[in-house]
UniProtKB/TrEMBL annotation:
GO cellular component: cytoplasm; heterotrimeric G-protein complex
Name of protein: Guanine nucleotide-binding protein subunit alpha-14
SMART domains tied to this protein: G_alpha
Residues engaged in binding Mg(2+): 75
Listed SUPFAM superfamilies: P-loop containing nucleoside triphosphate hydrolases (SSF52540), Transducin (alpha subunit), insertion domain (SSF47895)
Keywords: GTP-binding, Magnesium, Metal-binding, Nucleotide-binding, Transducer
Source species: Bambusicola thoracicus (Chinese bamboo-partridge)
Domain of life, source organism: Eukaryota
Residue positions binding GTP: 44-45, 69-75, 94-98
């Protein structure tokens, strides 16, 4: 029944379809499979939606802010987002990170003030989406276990951050780092304000105003 559903055309679930999805999610085999979601490129938001599927399947369902934030759609091509932050207009250019998209990046570097490089810490041990036998960062997978104490989130984050900072060939170019969560709107607002201040300081320095 679920296989026959044309996902792109669904705007509302029939009751029998909703029950089938709920029963499938409760299946021990499916739960065991999801426990290995990193091996199968499954969305880490799937558990959020399927655990709360009764609410989502209701005819009166209206997505919450968290529902919307947890939807993950990979970027393809080049997308421009102009936005106003405290009366200053920024233009953000979002580019796809897949290998097939990287050749397009060269067209985006003219008149660039700053580059925001986003890294998902939860994907340190996953394989590439376009190559299922290549780990996204093999050295992290090998060295990560040597960190002590165990299950220290801050130590693990600092370790991965240093791996990226060590790739900076020009020590005159400062890397400003922030740990955040895509669904934490308040934290992200703080990060964007910090980025704005950084850009303004760099502009002032470039024109010898500070």
């Amino acid at each position: 029944m679920i296989r026959r559903v044309e996902v792109d055309k669904v705007t509302a679930l029939e009751r029998k379809q909703a029950e089938a999805i709920k029963n499938l999610w409760k299946d021990p085999g499916i739960q065991e499979c999801y426990d290995k979601w990193r091996e199968y490129q499954l969305s880490d938001s799937a558990k959020y939606y399927l655990t709360d599927f009764d609410r989502i399947a209701m005819p009166s369902f209206v997505p919450t802010q968290q529902d919307i934030l947890r939807v993950r759609v990979p970027t393809t091509g080049i997308i421009k987002y102009p936005f106003d932050l405290e009366n200053i207009v920024f233009r953000m250019v979002d580019v796809g990170s897949q290998r097939s998209e990287r050749r397009k990046w060269i067209h985006c570097f003219e008149s660039v003030t700053s580059i925001i490089f986003l890294v998902a810490l939860s994907e340190y041990d996953q394989v590439l989406a376009e190559c299922d036998n290549e780990v996204r960062n093999g050295c992290i997978f090998v060295m990560y276990r040597k960190r002590r104490p165990k299950q220290d989130v801050k130590a693990a984050g600092d370790f991965i951050l240093k791996l990226y900072q060590d790739q900076n060939p020009d020590k005159q170019k400062v890397i400003y780092s922030h740990f955040t969560c895509a669904t934490d709107t308040e934290n992200n607002r703080f990060v964007f304000v910090a980025v704005k201040d950084t850009i303004l300081q760099l502009d002032l320095r470039e024109f010898s105003l500070v």
